[in-house]
Write a structure and sequence with these properties.
mainly beta; 2 domains; about 0% helix; Immunoglobulin-like; 5-stranded mixed sheet; 4-stranded mixed sheet
Length: about 200
């Protein structure tokens, strides 16, 4: 996400990803749930006058302030030591900067959307606050795959190895009854190729 300013001296943000952004199951030690640090803020590197989006004044000193958050959704502070509290600010500094907070759905359900509301603020008062910025995230569901195993068998697994999902099978998509596969909570599950054809899904 780029942070710049308008000709009138107001802070502006260009969000360059489609919302809600899918967060995969966290592999970052100490950060539970679904998390990423790949998405961050960087100061505009060039003026785009046609879009009224300019480089930041060198006199500005930029923070974002957390205004609101949905239950289960967190953004961690600028030291990575704790989730931010409402009203707390995150240091980004004078231009040029490139900073990557940890966005973290600590408790969430794939398919549901979780939001944070921020405002971009100049502590030196050179530039006016941005309009409220609403960022939306969703836990990314794992993807099923089927791979050959021992002769006559296949392994059904899911990635990332998100806990809490159970593998289910059904002989038909629309009229069949979904049942838990044997050891359905184990990733992966081995099935005999000689067994009747089945459809598979993950359920949390």
């Amino acid at each position: 996400m780029q942070i710049g300013q308008s000709l009138a001296g107001q802070l502006k943000v260009n969000v360059d990803f489609i919302q809600p952004l899918g967060l995969e199951f966290s592999t970052i030690p100490g950060f539970p749930g679904f998390a990423t640090g790949d998405v961050g803020f960087h100061s505009a590197a060039a003026d785009d006058e046609t879009a009224d989006f300019l480089e930041l004044s060198p006199l500005a000193d930029i923070r974002f302030i957390l205004l609101a958050k949905d239950p289960g959704m967190e953004v961690w502070n600028d030291t990575g030591s704790a989730p931010m509290r409402l009203g707390e600010s995150f240091y980004m500094g004078p231009a040029f900067f490139d900073t990557h907070p940890i966005w973290d759905i600590v408790s969430g359900i794939p398919g549901q959307t979780y939001s944070l509301t921020l405002v971009i603020h100049d502590v030196n008062g050179v530039l006016r606050d941005s309009e409220p910025l609403v960022l939306q995230f969703t836990p990314a569901p794992p993807v099923l795959s089927i791979t050959p195993a021992a002769p006559g068998f296949a392994t059904i697994s899911w990635s990332p190895a998100t806990p809490g999902f159970v593998l289910q099978s059904s002989p038909a998509l629309q009229t069949g009854t979904w049942t838990d596969a044997p050891t359905g909570g184990t990733n992966g599950v081995t099935a005999a190729l000689s067994a009747p054809a089945q459809f598979y899904r993950l359920r949390r």
